[in-house]
Amino acid sequence: xxxxxxSDTVDAVKTIIITVGAELTSGHTINxxxxxxxxxxxxxxxxxxxxxxxxxxxxxxxxxxxxxxxxHDIILITGGLGPTHDDVTKAALVKAFKTRLxxxxxxxxxxxxxxxxxxxxxxxxxxxxxxxxxxxDVIRNRYGTAPCLYKEAGKASLFALPGVPFEMKKLMKTExxxxxxxxxxxxxxxxxxxxxxxxxxxxxxxxxxxxxxxxDNVELAYLPYFGQVDIxxxxxxxxxxxxxxxxxxxxxKLDRVVGQYVFGRDEQTLEEVTGEILVSRxxxxxxxxxxxxxxxxxxxxxxxxxxxxxxxGVVAYSNQAKVKRLKVKQSTLDRYGAVSAQTAAxxxxxxxxxxxxxIGLSSTGVAGPGGGTKEKxxxxxxxxxxxxxxxxxxxxxxxxxxxxxxxxxxxxMLAWLWRVARxx
Amino acid sequence: xxxxxxSDTVDAVKTIIITVGAELTSGHTINxxxxxxxxxxxxxxxxxxxxxxxxxxxxxxxxxxxxxxxxHDIILITGGLGPTHDDVTKAALVKAFKTRLxxxxxxxxxxxxxxxxxxxxxxxxxxxxxxxxxxxDVIRNRYGTAPCLYKEAGKASLFALPGVPFEMKKLMKTExxxxxxxxxxxxxxxxxxxxxxxxxxxxxxxxxxxxxxxxDNVELAYLPYFGQVDIxxxxxxxxxxxxxxxxxxxxxKLDRVVGQYVFGRDEQTLEEVTGEILVSRxxxxxxxxxxxxxxxxxxxxxxxxxxxxxxxGVVAYSNQAKVKRLKVKQSTLDRYGAVSAQTAAxxxxxxxxxxxxxIGLSSTGVAGPGGGTKEKxxxxxxxxxxxxxxxxxxxxxxxxxxxxxxxxxxxxMLAWLWRVARxx
Lengths: 424, 424
Fold this sequence. Notes:
Two copies of one chain form a homodimer. Chain A has three domains: about 5-185, MoaB/Mog-like domain (Molybdenum Cofactor Biosythetic Enzyme, Chain A), CATH 3.40.980; about 190-265, Alpha-Beta Plaits; about 270-424, Alpha-Beta Complex (Maf protein). In chain A, β6 (about 135-140) and β7 form a beta hairpin. In chain A, the strands form four sheets. In chain A, strands 2-1-3-8-7-6 form a six-stranded mixed beta sheet, with helices on both faces. A five-stranded mixed beta sheet of chain A has the order 14-13-15-16-17, with helices on both faces. Chain A has helices at about 5-10, 20-25, 30-40, 60-70, 90-95, 105-115, 125, 165-185, 200-210, 240-260, 270-280, 295-300, 320-325, 330-335, 340-355, 400-424; strands at about 15-20, 50-55, 75-80, 100-105, 130-135, 135-140, 150-155, 155-160, 190-195, 220-225, 230-235, 260-265, 285-290, 310-315, 360-365, 380-385, 390-395. The first copy, chain A, is an alpha/beta fold and about 425 residues long. Chains A and B meet through α2, α3, β2, α9 and β10 of A and α2, α3, β2, α7 and α12 of B. β14 (about 310-315) of chain A pairs antiparallel with β14 (about 310-315) of chain B, so a sheet runs across the interface.
């Protein structure tokens, strides 16, 4: 562990996010709020030291708030501010700070204004939303009925925000972030991410470590997902320029070592980068999918502007579709089977011929969990690529899980397309 | 608060989920693992009391583990078991339990087997993955290189799982859940979920509340997502049979009130249910997608056995593909445009005619963010359905977000297909 951890260098300001709600702890709602808030803090040089998710329990939440005030500098709470019985944040703040609820005139006017604005009658329960713990500042919420609460408690700045994502985001952007900006001035952190495909996490790690380009001042993190691995570089410096310089220098060196696998930077996706290459080459794309079932086409068309290079796709699930739509020979199916390199090749060639595309990708395989045989087990997949008339195929040996096999197949198709288009 | 909170009744066994990784605290990865794990615990009557997300910091993680062992009965940790320097969970376990790392023969053999299986060379760093904290049981991970660790510590059962979602899920299902089942026997809780489509959350809520079928002993929760709303029924009882009886009784009454919207129960998906209906009717399906870009076909083929009813799909992105593959008339495109009810109708009819399917679904629209005009703004979508020769179309007015529009379009196609197939 050669590199300094971020926590050693930029945690002058310790941040905690507390998200409240049984829908979160039970897993029925995925906690996207916490991720969004953390990313919103990043430009300030803040990375949360921890994210805590709790059920709607007054006592537990109050205990955690008391503890956070002692250990953290910035405390962001979301959720539990609504009008129903399971909204417990205000009660927990009252308990934690040994205070009481008082009706806030400004907040009450705000709630009334909100209901007039949406032209709906106001329920009595909404009036209680104007009750706030004494000693807290009320930040007006123009986007809903729950007020945003704010308190300087010892060395900690505490914000309690509504859990409705839209309201939380608006309040973060317009109210919380500007206040935090005044408070923190770490500022001197720089980050970049190199996004790779076609190499595993361990192999990438080994390549990088053995290259000697690693720099003590730049922290590297490896983040794998579905056939791609991100290398995230972070550096802190005495000035913002120094931090950026350190990151850029290591990124350049890394590019020499693993550049062949790097398809993009930061937020760029493989789908977008591949699309841009196809546009710049003036090339048209088509797809002929069997086992990936349309997932490849769906990923390609997830990019705005895909109509500029994607002509069409065929999801040729039945043999008849392979023959009629893609001109696969019946004799090939009879002799080698639908799941074969020969069929994959003819599908890729066929979709180019019938669509007029310059590049065609194909897939055929046993996605599972049924349909496997001893010769052709579940997870056996062939993908094909036809480029300007030349066809190649690739055999994949994936696992037993249907959805993962479909995902992996589409990822391999995409990665192959990217490599071929780039190298043309 | 009429219903007893679940937390009041079943927290004899206190559970905590600890997820580890800077990619989670920083918000660069959304914490779907925690949600998945919590849902997987639900059938055991366990709801996590808290979810804690931490960066890769040995000292902090060790402290939290020591604390959790005192306060919780079940501790599930994911992440930080990989081969790179930012994988700190084993070091934290060593520190928390004042033990040391020892190389585990079984685990080493497992890692070697894994690399032989995928036919890739094994990096030296992977050997270290067989080092485990002394005193822990090693649960073999057949799906990756990081072993799963298990320890009974005082009254707590602690499991450390890899953070790769696929590996974590497989290990949870095959190893962790079965062990936990033996340990907990809360038993006296019953749950069922009615899954609906084609009605909004508020309308559904109003229908149910006004029907008077609500029962004080059965708690209802409304869980909306992408055009579907789940109604979850939970009851606790003095015996397991009593709890099940209470839930069944309310579910039956609800079925009379909102049954027309209910497509399935519990884990059933709309894709699966629709597939089963098509199989039972002996009907064949085909799709002709423009703006949904293959997502509908991809969702249909996500179901094992889809090849029994899904013949083929065409992703007709270009006008040429619409004409050549689907027999849409050039005059229709000229007169009404590609985004029109007329084109959607011809696409649906065309894919039935060219594939021989009994039912064909189509989509054409402005997915955005580019391509909108005053007459045809972003979010305007037409979908078509051809069944046994008769065609209908539907106009959707969606929002500005491309991926959401594609998702919503495919959901509406699927919901329509289900309704039509069910009522045949």
